Amino acid sequence: MTAEKPVTHKKERTKKPSPENQQKRKINDETDSPKSKAVGGHKKLKQAATDKKLLDYYWALASDDPKERLEAAIGLLKGLNESDSEADWKYAFDRLLKGLSSSRGSARLGFSMALSEVLNCRQDFIDVWLYLDSVAEYFNIPSNANGHEERGLNFGTLFALRTLAQSPLLFKSSTTIREFERFIDLSLELAQRKIWLRESVFFALCDLIKKLTHDKFENLGYSIKNAIELTLKKVQDAGVTLTSEGVALYLSLDEGQRNEFSITGGWKNNDPLLTSNLVSLAKALKEVPVNNEQNEDASDRAKLKGNWKPTLHFVWELLIQELNGIKKNNEATKSKDKKSNKIKKDNVIPQRVGIDEFWKVVVDESLFANSASSERKYWGFEVFILFLQLAAPQNVKDLFSPNFVRCLTNQLSQQDRLLNKEAKKVVSSLQDAVAKRPEITIDIVECLLEKIPNFDVITKTKTLSNLILAVPSDQISRLVDVFVSIFEDPKKSEEKATELRRQWALDNLLSLVKTRRSEPGSSVWIEQIINVLVKFGFFKGLGPAVSPTTVENCHTRLNSVLSLTVGSNRDDNRSWAFYVLNSILSLEEAKNELVHDFEGDLLKAKNKSIKTLEKIRKKRSSSTHADTSQLEAFELLFSLVLIQVYSTDSEAATVLDELQMCYNNIIGKSCHQEDDGEEVDATQVLSEILLSFLSRRSALLRRLSETVWSTFTSQITKESLQLLYDVLESSESAQGQGELFDEDDDNMEIDEEDEDDEENEADDEEDDENDDDDDDEISDEEEEDDDDDAVKEADRQAHEALAKALGINEEGEASQSIDEDDDDDESMDDEQMMALDEQLAGIFRERQKVLNAHKTPTQKKQASLEAKQNMVQFKSRVLDLLEIYIKAQSSSPLLLTTIPSLLTVIRITRDVSLGDKAHQLLKNKLCKVKTLPKLADGDVENALEILSSVHAQARRSTNKAHSLACNQASVFLSKTLLNHDKDLAEKISSVYASSLTDWIKVSHSKISPALFFDFVNYIASTKNNKK
Predict the structure, then answer these.
(1) Which terms under GO biological process does the entry name (predicted)?
(2) Rounded distance between C-alpha atoms, residue 82 and residue 679, angstroms
């Protein structure tokens, strides 16, 4: 009876028979064969017709739906057990065995599953020899078979042999060694018949060997050792031992069992993973001849696989499982050898390769070699993905070998690379692996950072960045150590490359603080980062020499770290700023050399501030009641200012005395008076200090100002707030900047009017461009020449003045003069030094005046633009302070004083974002406070004046936002006044009446009608609520 094959006639494919006819034809096909007639003839036909449902199961076994196949197999076995007919069992065995050659749907999967269950149920009635006879008969390939038929019969043989290996027939007490040998012969004959079937055949053999070695059998009809040895000899005779399949077969045996068999001509000591077998193993896994003689033997060459396939051989999974435990075994062997110390040279225990050595020889230097083909490298990537999933955590670092990393980087760098998609698959596997096994993340990151730190830049991916974010919290300290090691030893010969590498390391350390500082245990590694920045930013000789640029980068990154942590405290109740300063002081006390030394008044101010800081720490540590938020704020202030002083910030040095005075007045309760006898407002001085911090482009100083300001909001006075109002009401120009910071008028020649004049002049010049282009060019050249002469003259005069002040010979003999006057310099007192400093400052100021006066039009416009940007940023930061104050002091009557300044900003600013920010602050924060300001009797007149000023601004409104803000502020003020005293309604109404009169009389009045509607609506809503 021939094997079951799908119908291939064209007519039958185009017209499918009805289910009734199809079922009848199936019955006829099954009963017309000689085999079926021998079983029962017409009786079988009648039984098959009555068991129509049972026959349907055979058809369903070929379904592509796994669930349907499983239900069909269950139904078939249930029906066979219920009928318990020998004829049914015989028919099922023949039908299922023959169906293994069918290519219809998933017939082979469904039929092999059902056949396996039939063999399990009928193991007492079927022997191995009969089964193998049926396989040989049913799947015999006739000489006239076409390629499709031959392929089907080969697959039928394969599935039949695999089903037998998984059934209990081979492990019965009645099974003999001859039957086992015949099974091996048929398997190897199939493997030799078609090379592309060899892997599948050996997969079944490996499962059989594992079952023999690991399962326990009672009354087995043959010796397991003899069966395994027979198998190994047969494989050796077939010449397949030194192949991937041969490796898999030997790895299926336990390590201790491999030496029990005497197989010659194959793997030494029957263990492919011995060091002596490593070269041969690499060739075998690469699918090339192991011995040179094989190249001359045509039969051996035929054993090599002719067609490459992308799927990975199953032997690699066996290899990683075996390699995971070898390193520990080797270490145990070495320790045992050291203890005994009596091993003779001729009895040396064969050494097995670890995963590091295996990966280097078998994968890195073979599959990823420079001469390797793209197909081999594809295999290498697949092996990496597999090993990454299964390798023990301690073995992951061995996978990132040089050739692999190089190949991965090259394939990712360009989209048109042949293996670009496969390389992206590797990157994706890295992400999946760290998600499933977070403990290996740090090892992967370390390997990439050590080999190619700029991996993301070269590959145009975010692989390394994403992996860094995935590092578990408890392993970030190791990551910090990696970046620090790169910083200390960039391994670059060129100075520029060294600087870039160190800057890159600092940037990554800062990125860690930005993204991971809120995680548990972050204090430990943040301290590591700070210690490195302090060591290289402030001291010499504590590590490799670094350039001034690197020192400056350390200062910048340290300020950034502090700006990110300035609002949070450590576990020991100390601020991070104090920790940084304490680290600096500790290294300084250890007699380490500072990058910049202190001397004179600056040294005294620094020491005094440090003593004050020690007092603050002592008070805070004395008891929880003494530890106030103001003490914490002053600790933060002193610490950060001193850090800036150590960073040679000249502006920070001038703040120390003022800060000392504020501390004495607020904490020490001592009154400080000026020379004229007036008492100094400490909060006003503190506000000036904070404003000076805000005027600088420093995120750290901005965060510091906001933190300290929030602490002292309850003590802020009207005069202190006026300092903020002065900033908001100043002009957004160079002139406004000069007035605000008391700069010389000569330095501030460009204001808004100048800009308008220049624009008008430019328009006039464009109108007359065709008439006097030549004259303009000549005048511009003459003006530039005059400017150059003036600048040169200013430089000459400054040079002469400096030479005279310092006593230096104008001919350039400065060094000689200085050497001769060393004694005089040493004898100069502080007053003389201060006078000299003032004289030098005056010389440089005069020179700067000349430079400012002779700027080119382009330089003047640029300076004006920079001044405008500085003022806009400054005002924006002042608005942040006001927002903090409004939130903290919502019931304070001083809250009303913020309204005129906010309206002024909205009206005069030319920056849309700044005006919108001021409007939102007034609308959403100030006018919507939960508790209205509580006015005293003395505050009423001031509130009415503010209301009148709001209406006055409404008459001069310049934009819609300003008009809306005036309406909202007017209603808020009216609400506050009426909440204090209802009798104030008359005065409030008079203010509105005056504005209404102006709106009626003035035809082009800027007052919006909504100003009156909003007030009336508020009053109406108040009355309705009372009802």
Answers:
(1) regulation of DNA-templated transcription
(2) 110
DSSP state, residue 365: I
The residue segments making up the domain with residue 941 are: 713-740+860-1025
Please give the structure tokens belonging to residue 98.
Answer: 């023959």
Of 471, 501, 535, the domain-final residue = 471
DSSP 375-421: HHHHHHHHHHHHHHHHS-GGGGGGG--HHHHHHHHHHHH-TTSTTHH
Which residue's entry shows tokens 């955590």? 393
Distance CA(896)–CA(889), nearest Å, equals 11
Any domain includes 423: yes
In-domain check, residue 279: no
- Classify residue 675: in a domain, yes or no: no
State pLDDT tens for residues 849-863.
666 665 667 777 787
CA neighbor of 962 nearest in space, from 970, 1001, 1002, 753: 970
How do residues 359-406 score in pLDDT, each as one tens digit?
A: 999 999 999 999 999 999 999 999 999 999 999 999 999 999 999 999
Q: Is 1014 a domain residue?
A: yes
- Record the pTM: 0.73
Q: 348 in the Ramachandran plot: left (φ > 0), alpha (ψ -120 to 50) or beta?
A: beta
- Encode 842-870: b = buried (16+ Cβ within 10 Å), e = exposed: ebeeebeebebebbeeeebeebbeebbeb
**Structural element, H or E, at residue 594:** strand 593-594
Which of 442, 471, 500 is the last residue in one of the domains?
471
Number of domains comprising the chain: 2
What's the token pair of residue 580? 């940084």
For residue 419, name the pLDDT band (cuts at 50, 70, 90).
very high
**Helix, strand or coil, per DSSP, at residue 513:** helix
